[in-house]
Design goal:
This protein is of the alpha/beta class and 177 residues long. The protein has six helices and nine strands; from the N terminus they run H-E-H-E-H-E-E-E-H-E-E-H-E-E-H. The strands form two sheets. It has a seven-stranded mixed sheet, sandwiched between helices.
């Protein structure tokens, strides 16, 4: 239901808030098409954090370039993705992408594999459900101006360096309406 979606969004927002994410911070979402990815986007919008969704088919170099450009403090990913019957090790790609990047403070990992064997580094990595499921289902939405950034979307980079397009709250919502 919409109430369940709101509750879950608030829990994820509160979890991100507990990691220090606040209005204006950037969060990179490198996840397969799952409800957890959608809820994370909504949670970022609720906090006023700017999310950048990166297609989970891109490699570590492309992901790193987008994280650096966006100056993302937090990366949300999954341990694996399933593509055309094959398992894609998303967490391994993220590990390679954030190696040596001081701007990334936390990596939140949604464990999807049947046998979760991905070990998390407790100094930097957090389990998605471990962080969010005990959080309150209430989280006040941040007051935003119509021209405040909502999300960043990068071009493919097929004709050069990827370009980050910034979408704002008011313009995006008016366009959707």
């Amino acid at each position: 239901t919409f109430k369940q979606l709101l509750d879950w969004t608030c829990q994820v927002a509160n979890g991100l808030c507990s990691l220090g994410v606040k209005k204006g911070d950037r969060v990179c979402i490198y996840m397969p098409l799952t409800p957890e990815g959608i809820v994370t986007m909504l949670a970022c919008a609720r906090l006023g954090a700017i999310h950048s969704v990166v297609y989970a088919g891109l490699g570590s170099g492309a992901l790193r370039a987008r994280i650096e450009d966006a100056q993302a403090r937090v990366v949300v990913t999954a341990d694996v993705g399933y593509r055309r019957g094959k398992i894609v090790q998303l967490k391994g790609i993220v590990d390679e992408a954030v190696k040596g990047l001081d701007i990334v403070e936390k990596v939140v990992v949604h464990r999807r594999a049947a046998n979760p064997t991905v070990a998390l580094d407790p100094t930097r990595e957090v389990d998605f459900y471990g962080l969010f499921e005990s959080q309150s289902t209430e989280c006040a939405a941040e007051v935003m101006e119509s021209e405040d950034p909502l999300f960043m979307l990068y071009t493919s980079g097929s004709t050069g360096a990827p370009k980050g397009c910034v979408y704002v709250h008011g313009g995006y919502m008016v366009g959707v309406t």
